[in-house]
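Researcher: We plan to redesign the surface later, but first we want a full-length starting point. Tokens attached.
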């Protein structure tokens, strides 16, 4: 008797306005309580033509984020079925086939779930945020999706060298922002937050890619910019989609296959022809950092943060650090080494990568060591190790298949895309081998790694 297929979790969610209730059998997402719009953040978006459709787009994005987080994925398998009803100012616009179809395509492709999103008329219009004058260049040529990450800092510096003031940074991710010049800037913070603090929430958060791409797309629409710069280097943009783990669906959050779908959605919704571009996708993170360091007179790349772990898991004596061993931290350490640079050991919780065991590598005052921390560290090292193995001849069929679709998204021939991807993977493998060698034979990382050059 064959085993039964795993059941696909399903949840129906109504986005509700003030004083209203979700329909029977549906979970309610309250616009007054389950989403927080920041007045100050919205002011940085409202310098130009603020339109009801922009508010609607942010509400749709927030509702998608909430749905993504409130429904746990199955223990075996990945997909869920999510039915979402959203009140908007102009439901006829949102229900147009070209808008609805492109929205379902981009969100379904990104998260790997089955979505059914419908729209109804709002009972009361949303208040417009206050508008104020913000100093912008005469013409904005590009916006750059910006966080506290190393790629963001580096690519912003590299792009600024050629675009000057025609480049506008758009904050995505964390709330920190460099305002050292004292002037007000547009797009200085993510305009809304979905707290979603239930104890058993889903942690994969694939919809965050839609949130950040939408925010930068709205910024391009408001500034009439033609390009949206994605600062991810090759390992960060392509690696998570090329190397899938277990039951996990490939991670396309910074991948051209996702942004091409996002372009179609923005064109259908806003009539905006903006292109997401990847100026560093064929470079390693180390190559990007090296180029930026050659342009910069200081070491401000050292103040960036790459770690996926929050303060609860990556602090020592109350001071926030980076864990040093998650996949993002490992890629950072690899890249700093490849660029010929160095960081202070206390940048990380894991201070000594030459130690023979993970426990011995940690700061003595770190108190959150656990089996889960160790598993996280192993996964971080093996991600880079598996990506290096993609440079081997045995992986050529898989690499060429990925290059075929990647080339379509980047307007490259299959042969050109395959050559570029193979070269990127080869350089990553060389950097990884060099970093492993630098750690010495006894390093716990060297013991976990399987890649042999």
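Model: Full-length starting sequence:
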């Amino acid at each position: 008797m064959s085993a039964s297929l795993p059941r696909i979790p399903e949840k129906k969610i109504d986005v509700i306005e003030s004083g209203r209730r979700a329909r029977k059998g549906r979970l309610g997402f309250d616009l007054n309580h389950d989403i927080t719009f920041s007045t100050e953040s919205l002011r940085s978006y409202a310098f130009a033509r603020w339109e009801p459709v922009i508010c609607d787009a942010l509400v749709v994005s927030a509702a998608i984020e909430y749905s993504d987080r409130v429904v746990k994925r199955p223990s075996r398998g990945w997909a869920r079925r999510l039915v979402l009803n959203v009140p908007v100012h102009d439901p006829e616009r949102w229900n147009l086939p070209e808008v609805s179809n492109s929205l379902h395509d981009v969100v379904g492709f990104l998260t790997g779930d089955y979505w059914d999103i419908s729209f109804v008329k709002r009972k009361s219009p949303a208040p417009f945020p206050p508008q104020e004058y913000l100093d912008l260049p005469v013409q904005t040529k590009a916006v750059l999706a910006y966080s506290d990450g190393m790629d963001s800092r580096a690519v912003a510096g590299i792009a600024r060298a050629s675009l000057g003031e025609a480049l506008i940074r758009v904050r995505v991710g964390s709330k920190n922002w460099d305002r050292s010049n004292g002037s007000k800037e547009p797009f200085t913070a993510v305009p809304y937050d979905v707290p979603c603090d239930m104890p058993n929430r889903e942690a994969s958060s694939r919809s965050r890619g839609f949130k950040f791409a939408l925010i930068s797309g709205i910024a391009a629409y408001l500034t009439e910019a033609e390009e949206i710069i994605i600062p991810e280097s090759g390992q960060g943009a392509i690696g998570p989609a090329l190397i899938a783990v277990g039951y996990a669906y490939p991670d396309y959050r910074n991948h051209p296959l996702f942004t091409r779908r996002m372009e179609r959605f923005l064109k259908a919704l806003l009539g905006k022809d903006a292109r997401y571009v990847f100026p560093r996708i064929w470079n390693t993170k180390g190559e990007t950092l090296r180029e930026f360091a050659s342009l910069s007179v200081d070491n401000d790349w050292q103040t960036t943060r790459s770690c996926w772990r929050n303060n609860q898991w990556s602090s020592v004596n109350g001071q926030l650090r980076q864990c040093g061993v998650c996949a993002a931290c490992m890629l950072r350490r690899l890249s700093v080494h490849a660029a010929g640079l160095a960081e202070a050991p206390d940048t990380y919780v894991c201070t000594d990568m030459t130690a023979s065991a993970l426990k011995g590598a940690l700061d003595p005052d770190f108190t959150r060591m656990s089996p889960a921390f160790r598993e996280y560290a192993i996964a971080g090292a093996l991600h880079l190790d598996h990506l290096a193995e993609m440079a081997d001849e045995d992986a050529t069929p898989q690499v060429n298949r990925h290059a075929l679709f990647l080339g379509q998204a980047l307007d490259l021939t299959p042969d050109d895309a395959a050559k570029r991807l193979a070269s990127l993977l080869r350089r990553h493998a060389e950097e990884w081998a060099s970093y492993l060698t630098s750690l010495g034979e006894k390093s716990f990382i060297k013991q976990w790694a399987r890649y042999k050059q």
